[in-house]
Amino acid sequence: MKRHLLISLSLLLVLFFVGCQSSMEEQEAEAEISPQAGELQTVTFKVDGMYCGACVSKVQKAVLAVNGVTDCKVDYGKKVAICTFDKSKTTSEKLTLATKGTPYTLTVAN
Ligand SMILES: [Cu+2]
């Protein structure tokens, strides 16, 4: 009786591992199918509402808080924000919403 239990237990274990592996393979395949995953895009935004140097970091912080944004450089003199983001995770439209509720307005410049 004990032997039967052991055999069925080990069978279960084998099934479990096989199941894990196949689901891992599926995930990898999914990543390959989407060609845009990890593809970066840089967009320049016009920034309205900045009146001092401290505004720069506030705008930067708001944009960088958006999932997928990898870089954001705000130029106070030129009143622009140059932002780089993962195209599969966010869009320039979503970035313009990042400063919603703040005195700053982003609009796509290019
Ligand atoms: Cu300011």
Walk me through this protein's architecture.
This protein is of the alpha+beta class. It has two domains: 1-33; 40-108, 2-Layer Sandwich (Alpha-Beta Plaits). It is 45% helix and 25% strand. The chain contains three helices and four strands, in the order H-E-H-E-E-H-E. A four-stranded antiparallel sheet has the order 2-3-1-4. Strand 2 and strand 3 form a beta hairpin. The longest helix is centred in the N-terminal third of the chain and has 32 residues, at 2-33. It is rod-shaped. The chain starts with a helix and ends with a strand. The mean pLDDT is 85. It binds copper (II) ion (CU). Copper (II) ion (CU) binds at residues 51-52, 54-55.
Give the rounded overall mean pLDDT. 85
Low-confidence parts: none
> Which CATH architecture of the largest domain?
2-Layer Sandwich
CATH secondary-structure class of the largest domain: Alpha Beta
**How many whole angstroms does the radius of gyration measure?**
24 Å
Strand count, sense and barrel status of the largest sheet are: 4 strands, antiparallel
Please provide the count of β strands. Answer: 4
